[in-house]
What does this fold into?
Amino acid sequence: MKQKAVVFNIEDILFDKKRQVHRVNYFTGETESFFKKVQNKISRKEVIYALQELSRKYKIVLISTLSKSLRGTIEDWLCTQQVVYNDLHLKPDYSKQPDNMYKVQVFFDSINRKYDVEYIFRTRKEVMNFLESE
It folds into this structure.
């Protein structure tokens, strides 16, 4: 019998992301591009606490489109942040596969074969809502 698991997309849930913003100068018509930190109403600490709570009932599977060559750095960061997990899936080095296709493939080729997946989280809000419903 497969163990129950929940899957987390690292980039969208654990990282504080930045997004590119474009602003047009109405006097010159030039476009300025800059990166602005995406504001999350739910902090990383709250999500990490939720992961710890969910790990009591589920196996925690992390998936990322970051390169496998960064595994050591990513694992160190996860440890420093006290993120509990059972499996970490990273994209093969030099893969030209689109990120969304990689995630679908690793889900069906690996994660779904090993675990009975209860939920796949894409946002911090989904994590908190799920934990509250437990």
